[in-house]
Amino acid sequence: MKVLTLNFLTCAVKACKSTSAAFPLHPKDCELVSDTLEANPKLLFNILPRIDWNALIITASELGFPTLPPTPPTPEQLENDPKMMQELHTLLLETQISEGSLVCANCSHEYRVKEGIANFLLPNHLV
Amino acid sequence: MSRPEDTLPPDLHYNDAEAKKYTTSSRIQNIQASMTHRALELLDLDRPSMILDVGCGSGLSGEILSSVDPSEGGPHIWVGMDISASMLDVALQRDVEGDLMLADIGQGVPFRAGSFDAAISISAIQWLCNAESSEVSSTGRLSRFFNGLYASLKRGGRAVCQFYPKNDQQRTMISGAAIKAGFGAGILEDDPGTKNHKLYLVLTVGGSEAEGNGGDITGVVKGMEGVDVLDARRKHREKGRKELKKGSKAWILSKKEQMERKGKVVKNSSKYTGRKRHIAF
Predict the structure, then answer these.
(1) Whole-prediction pTM
(2) Per the CATH hierarchy, to which homologous superfamily does domain B4-239 belong?
(3) Which of A2, A30, A126, B54 has the smallest C-beta neighbourhood within 10 Å, fewest atoms?
(4) Under an 8 Å CB criterion, which residues of B touch A?
């Protein structure tokens, strides 16, 4: 599972829908793999405004990545800075969680991740 | 013809053997590919986007999403949800590019608001009409799914869901649930009346109204060749707008029709209906 996807995932439990603590999910005991993907600047420009930057900073620090700047780069900055573009590409798209679990900070439900597939099936009483 | 939906729930129906069969059958592959291309055409994406694949299965449609040519706005990245672990296992073996999630779409779509540019679903949402236990209802599952989908799409986003309804009732149930969730919904029917007729539920999330498209399927198919638009709402609107003069022939006929619909006994209409009498003196 890509770090980018993690930036969009929230807890699926019904009681967590209205709380802000349900996002982002916190990775726990995660094994990371790196997958080489072709850089796609257009895609980055398209999704950049939708990334929750604060959540990304939290995720990056929890996964042990170097600290990100406190504010998201503007498209112009990104265009003029190929190194930053490459770093973002590596973090968001190439870094993948292969094993471990994702924990909701609100209800502390653990979503297992196996072979890169997160298990979001819930028992009926939580839906 | 037997429907797999009638036999078992999807997570049990698509076991290892069935998932393998589904993915290796060249006939299914071809049908899936053509439906995915049709759905992409309806989505009309012009730049690399983030797409949600609902019921992604073994990633047959996802594969096409990640291989869209850069000149046509691709390649897209996608996140796939499916309830069948065996199907996802096949997807892993096929080494698809998108992210996979084991999730039941009837339990909602666990993404924050405005995550995706578009959503695609090939032959999946009819499974929502089945409720496997007494704790869940099909209407509840449908509404949870469409509400979640509506929230996770960005404004101006679109979703195209190809589905196989069992009957007209299921078809109205599904499109009704989508409309209730707030979507601008419409159904595109390909090759109607033939054996391989396909239904696409085209959903839009606000936004496009400003471009004069009406913000729903009629805007989506505008400019496409060979599409007849049947807008039930327009007929209704026009009918409502025209005020009939009380006592006129058209008024009498409409009243008679109304009474007939209520089940009352109504005299037959003839050329004399609503005609003025002669002045006797």
Answers:
(1) 0.82
(2) Vaccinia Virus protein VP39 (3.40.50.150)
(3) A126
(4) 47-50, 75-77, 79, 81, 83, 88, 92, 97, 99-104, 107-108, 110-112, 114-117, 133, 135-136, 144, 152, 154
